[in-house]
UniProtKB/TrEMBL annotation:
Record's protein name: Nuclear receptor subfamily 6 group A member 1
Gene3D superfamilies: Erythroid Transcription Factor GATA-1, subunit A (3.30.50.10), Retinoid X Receptor (1.10.565.10)
Origin species: Callipepla squamata
Biased composition (Polar residues): 133-155
InterPro entries xref list: NHR-like_dom_sf, Nucl_hrmn_rcpt_lig-bd, Nuclear_hormone_rcpt_NR3, Nuclear_hrmn_rcpt, Znf_hrmn_rcpt, Znf_NHR/GATA
Species lineage: Eukaryota, Metazoa, Chordata, Craniata, Vertebrata
Region (Disordered): 131-165
SMART domains xref list: HOLI (SM00430), ZnF_C4 (SM00399)
NR LBD domain boundaries: 214-445
SUPFAM superfamilies documented for this protein: Glucocorticoid receptor-like (DNA-binding domain), Nuclear receptor ligand-binding domain
Domain of life of the source: Eukaryota
C-alpha cells in the first residue's frame, strides 16, 4: 500500500533511467527477454508453456490453485504456473505443430479465452479430440514466436518461419503481394531478410529506398480517417484553485467521452469500413475502445494529456484515506503507464505510425463473437506489412523501430485490461500520480 503522496508521486522510481529498458515476465517477474506467444515473458516461462502444450501435460496442484509465482517459486507448482500463463493471455495456437522453432501465423498480443476453455486445457479435455501428433520437445530452444508478432530478437513477423534457416525472399514477396495487392518493389531484393535482418545489419548497411506506392496509399487513407485536431474538452484552471476528487473525476469522464466519440467517428472513415459487418465492428469497438483511447492519449494527444490535464491534476490533493486505499492494481497500472509513456516519448511516434498501430490493434481476430475472423486476419496482416514498409523507409537507421512499436501494443492491451479492476474512485489519484511522474521525467530530459 501507499505510505504517502511523496512516495507515490515523486519517489516511485529511485532512478527512472534505470527502469526504462527493464521488462519483467508477466508470469513470474523474472527478467523478460521479449514477447513470447503473445505476452512479455522470460525464457523459462516461454519454454515451460511450450513444453506443457506440446506434450499435452496435465498437472495437479496440491494446494488451493493459487500458488505464488515468482522467479524462485515458479517451479514448485506446474499447475499454477500453466494456469497463470493462460490467464495472462499466452497463445497456445501460436506454437508450431511440428515443435520446431518459430511460431504459427497468429496476431500479436495476448489472447482472451473463457474460464471454461482454460479449465478444459488444464484438465486435458481440450486435447482429447485432437489427433495424436508427434511433438518434439525442444525445451527452451525455440528462438522466435511470430504467433504473437515478435521473434527472439524482437523482430516482428506475421509469417511463421523456422529460425534455423533462411526463408527465400520470394516467399515473403508472395505473401506481401497477397495482402497488399501490388508486386514487390525491387528494393526488397536488396534488403536483409525480413525475419533476421537485425543479425545481419552490420553486414548490410541501410540503403536509401522508396516507399511502396500501395503502402503510401493505404497509410494516407488511414491518416485521413484520423481526427488530429486538439481535444475540445476544457482543461484550463485558474491559479490557486483547488480541484476536488469529484471535479477531477467528472473531467476525466468528459475527456473519455470525447475520445470515445472520436473513435466511433474514426471507424466510419476507415478504408475497409464497407468490407466488414456492423456486428463485427460493434464487437471490435466494444473490446478495444479502451486500448484505442490509451494509444491516442500516449501519442497524438499526449501534449494536452501530459500538459494541460497534468496541470489540472496537480491542483488536486488526495486525502490520506485515498492514499492508503490506493490498490495494488492501481500501483501496477501506474508503473506500466509510466514505462509506456517513456517508451513512446523516446520513439516519438509519427502520425503515420500511430494510424497503422491503431488499425492493427483494432483488427484483432482473436476477439470472441466475430463472424468473419479470417477476413480480419487478412486486414491485420495488410497493415502490419504497410507499417513495416513505412518504418523501414522513414527510419532506415533504426532497424529495431518497427518491433519496438509492435511490442507496445500487447502492453497497451494488458494495461487497458488491468484498468478495469481499478476502483472508479481511485482514478483521480491514479491519473495525478501518472501525469505527475511523467511530467517530472520530461522536465529532467
Amino acid at each position: 500500500m501507499v505510505a504517502g503522496s511523496e512516495e507515490l508521486l515523486s519517489g516511485f522510481y529511485s532512478n527512472p533511467d534505470d527502469r526504462v529498458d527493464q521488462r519483467t515476465c508477466l508470469i513470474c517477474g523474472d527478467r523478460a527477454t521479449g514477447l513470447h506467444y503473445g505476452i512479455i515473458s522470460c525464457e523459462g516461462c516461454k519454454g515451460f508453456f511450450k513444453r506443457s502444450i506440446c506434450n499435452k501435460r496435465v498437472y495437479r496442484c496440491s494446494r488451493d490453485k493459487n500458488c505464488v509465482m515468482s522467479r524462485k517459486q515458479r517451479n514448485r507448482c506446474q499447475y499454477c504456473r500453466l494456469l497463470k500463463c493462460l490467464q495472462m493471455g499466452m497463445n497456445r495456437k501460436a506454437i508450431r505443430e511440428d515443435g520446431m522453432p518459430g511460431g504459427r501465423n497468429k496476431s500479436i498480443g495476448p489472447v482472451q479465452i473463457s474460464e471454461e476453455e482454460i479449465e478444459r486445457i488444464m484438465s486435458g479435455q481440450e486435447f482429447e479430440g485432437e489427433a495424436n501428433m508427434s511433438w518434439s520437445n525442444n525445451g527452451d530452444s525455440d528462438h522466435s514466436s511470430p504467433g504473437n508478432g515478435v521473434s527472439e530478437s524482437n523482430q516482428p513477423s506475421p509469417v511463421s518461419t523456422p529460425s534455423s534457416r533462411s526463408v527465400e525472399l520470394n516467399g515473403f514477396a508472395a505473401l506481401r503481394d497477397q495482402y497488399i495487392g501490388t508486386p514487390v518493389s525491387t528494393h526488397y531484393q536488396y534488403l536483409p531478410h525480413l525475419f533476421s535482418y537485425s543479425a545481419h545489419s552490420a553486414l548490410v548497411p541501410p540503403q536509401a529506398r522508396s516507399l511502396d506506392p500501395q503502402s503510401h496509399s493505404l497509410i494516407s487513407q488511414l491518416v485521413s480517417a484520423e481526427d488530429l485536431e486538439p481535444l475540445g474538452t476544457p482543461m484550463l484552471i485558474e491559479d490557486g484553485y483547488k480541484v476536488t476528487q469529484a471535479e477531477l473525476f467528472a473531467l476525466l469522464c468528459r475527456l473519455a467521452d470525447e475520445l470515445l466519440f472520436r473513435q466511433i467517428a474514426w471507424i466510419k472513415k476507415l478504408p475497409f469500413f464497407c468490407e466488414l459487418s456492423i456486428k463485427d465492428y460493434t464487437c471490435l469497438l466494444s473490446s478495444t475502445w479502451q486500448e484505442l483511447i490509451l494509444l491516442s492519449s500516449l501519442t497524438v494527444y499526449s501534449k494536452q494529456i501530459f500538459g494541460d490535464l497534468a496541470d489540472v491534476t496537480s491542483k488536486y490533493s488526495p486525502s490520506d484515506d485515498e492514499l492508503h486505499r490506493f490498490s495494488e492494481e492501481g500501483m501496477e497500472v501506474m508503473e506500466r503507464l509510466i514505462y509506456l509513456f517513456r517508451k513512446f516519448n523516446q520513439l516519438k511516434v509519427s502520425n503515420e505510425e500511430y494510424a497503422c498501430m491503431k488499425a492493427i490493434n483494432f483488427l484483432n481476430q482473436d476477439i470472441r463473437g466475430l463472424t468473419n475472423a479470417s477476413q480480419l486476419e487478412q486486414l491485420n496482416k495488410r497493415y502490419w506489412y504497410v507499417c513495416q514498409d513505412f518504418t523501414e523507409y522513414k527510419y532506415p537507421h533504426q532497424p529495431n523501430r518497427f518491433p519496438d512499436l509492435m511490442m507496445c501494443l500487447p502492453e497497451i492491451r494488458y494495461i487497458a485490461g488491468k484498468m478495469v479492476n481499478v476502483p472508479l474512485e481511485q482514478l483521480p489519484l491514479l491519473f495525478k500520480a501518472v501525469l505527475h511522474s511523467c511530467k517530472t521525467s520530461m522536465s529532467k530530459e
